[in-house]
Amino acid sequence: MTEPKAKEASKSELSLNDFNSRTDLVKTSGDDGEYNPADYRDQAKGQSTSGAMAHFLKSSLGSGILAMPMAFKSGGLLFSMIATLVVGFLCAHCVHILVKTSQSICKDIKVPALGFAETVEKAFENGPKRLRSWSKFAKVFVDASLMATYYAAACVYIVFIAKSFHDVINYDTGLEWSVRAYIALTLIPCLLIGQIRNLRWLVPFSAMANIFILITFGIVLYYLFSEPLVFDDKDLVGGITKIPLFFSTVIFAMEGIGSVMPVENAMKKPQDFLGCPGVLNTSMIIVVVLYAVIGFLGYVRYGDAVQGSITLNLQEGDALADTAKLLMAVAIQFTYGLQFYVPNDILWKMIAHKFNKKNHNIIQIALRTVIILISGGFCLALPSLEIFINLVGAIFFSILGIFVPSVCELVYLWPDRLGWGKWKLYKNIILCAFAIFALVSGSSASIEEIITTLTKKDS
């Protein structure tokens, strides 16, 4: 058998840092036997299995882990521990079916890799005839959802940074500035770092952010075990009205669906992503265990006083605690550039052709400035970290992380590849129902909290 010509570098622009999908969909013809996408990956610059695992862990173990104690506060110790494992399994499964569907479609249409939006588009395009006309809409929907998700998460970042500096500076200096004042000040560095359009310039910021986050985790663990843990006054099961907030917070913390396809697309051996143990299974076990442990210990340590980030519960005025709060705030500030880059890259590719090329620079500057100021306006209107986390998790991550992968697999396998007794049909219906439940109940509970907060402010 002749050696596949595919050992050459792929024409697809596959970059781990490119969270937007930009695969060059050019079919390869004239191959003998079954098309193997791995043969057409860039073997020189592609990611190793260990490298892919490191990147996947990096994208999953972010600031969301610090919100897990708040989730346990909503769900109670026993319910939250069990539910965290269940949600972790569901998130891992949804990643699995998205990647598996993408790899199968790559074989069908003979391309080396597909991004998130292209995977959904091609699933519809090659699915049931009645749904093929929806393929373009499906792609635009995923891209729009990714943009909304990252812009909303950027609002969470702004509020977190402002709240951290507010707590430290006001306590240590005696100032009485409001959180809104710190949000306004936080927008200044955001306006600067948000203008960076080259990912290579963001690498040093990400590297420093990772170091600061590791140091912060160490300090948090020190405080968690600095005093005896008290279990007696903690709820085993939270109130029924708070359960939706638990799910929305955990989904926000655990979901990293936007980074999945770039990680898989950059691998030399994509089959290792879903293998046993594989990148996905190994990484998700580590992620779920760490999230469950931090959530459990954080709630036991601080009880109902726990805040949207556990760093905000650390002892005020203590040098080590202040260091942790400021390091985490700076780390999130450094990460803001990448968080803001992702949706802007998607948006600019959608609208760039409408403007004269000689005006692209000034238009990009103006566009990024306006978007950051609008984000700041939302934060000033509602400077509550907890509500932002719940709302973003309920609306955006429920759709992207659970609903879209389930629908994508269902459309691709329809009608005769749904397994024995069509069990995959019923499984995906259940997943979609859970996503809709998390969306409706979580957003409703969050909106109710928003109304309550605004009412208290007015009264």
UniProtKB/TrEMBL annotation:
The keyword Transmembrane helix applies. Residues 1-45 are annotated as: Disordered. The chain crosses the membrane at residues 77-99, 140-165, 177-194, 201-225, 245-263, 284-303, 323-344, 365-385, 391-413, 425-447. The keyword Cytoplasm does not apply. Residues 47-447 form the Amino acid transporter transmembrane domain. It is found in: Membrane. InterPro entries: AA_transpt_TM. Keywords: Membrane, Transmembrane, Transmembrane helix. Residues 1-11 have a biased composition (Basic and acidic residues). One of its GO terms (molecular function) is L-amino acid transmembrane transporter activity. It is a multi-pass membrane protein. GO terms for cellular component: vacuolar membrane. Pfam families: Aa_trans. It comes from the Eukaryota. Residues 12-23 have a biased composition (Polar residues). This is Proton-coupled amino acid transporter-like protein pathetic.
